[in-house]
Design brief:
With 135 residues, the chain is of the alpha+beta class. The chain is 59% helix and 16% strand. A hairpin with a 6-residue loop joins strand 1 and strand 2.
Length: 135
Amino acid sequence: MKNFLYRFMAGRYGNDSLNKFLTGLWLGAAVLSIFVDWKILYYIVWVLCLLVLFRSFSRNIPARQKENAFFLRIMRKPRSLFGGVKGFFDRLSQRKTHRFFKCPSCGTLLRVPRRKGLMNIRCVRCGNQFSRRIR
Ligand SMILES: [Zn+2]
């Protein structure tokens, strides 16, 4: 039996981050379907289950790796989106004491103590210097 499984899985894709994520979704949907009576959930559970099985048993490894890389790319975005929302409130709470500028050369957000007049700002990341007039 072990030998059979080994031969069966040989040359197949197996598990990756996307499959772990899909399995998590699948379990979540399966648990949720116990409590709510949405017909759509029933299909979601099945589609996720088949998707995970299809991906792990697939022999088209480059295609599966591409999907996983795409998944990892889009998973990075929500994090930076939340960072942006959090950053927005940070900046809002500091707007009386600090000003925020984007470095014109690398785009890094720079925090500068608020004072009037022309300020020379030096980017902490790329060293680029620029000046801004603060009213
Ligand atoms: Zn810079």
